[in-house]
From TrEMBL:
Name used for this protein in its record: Uncharacterized protein DUF1656
Membrane-spanning segments: 6-29, 50-68
Matching InterPro entries: DUF1656
Keyword Membrane annotated: yes
Keywords linked to the UniProt accession: Cell membrane, Membrane, Transmembrane, Transmembrane helix
Length: 69
C-alpha cells in the first residue's frame, strides 16, 4: 500500500481516505444499531461509538490491504 493517493493531482494520505470511508460505514452501522434498539444495552454511547469506529477502521484498513495486493 502506498502512503498517498493521487486524486486529480492532489496527494491525499491513504489513512485520511480510509478514515472517511470508515466514517460512512460507521454512520450506517450506528443508524442500524439505533434502529434495532441496541443502544439501550450500552452504558456509554460515546465510548461505544469511538470503539466501534476504531474496530471498523481496522477492518477497512485490512480490507484495503487485501484488495490492493
Amino acid at each position: 500500500m502506498t502512503g498517498e493517493i493521487d486524486i486529480y493531482g492532489v496527494y491525499v494520505p491513504t489513512l485520511l481516505v480510509l478514515m472517511l470511508a470508515t466514517l460512512a460505514v460507521s454512520l450506517l452501522v450506528r443508524r442500524a444499531l439505533a434502529w434495532a434498539g441496541f443502544y439501550a444495552l450500552v452504558w456509554h454511547r460515546g465510548l461505544f461509538d469511538i470503539a466501534l469506529y476504531v474496530v471498523l477502521l481496522l477492518g477497512v484498513f485490512n480490507l484495503s490491504r487485501w484488495w490492493l495486493s
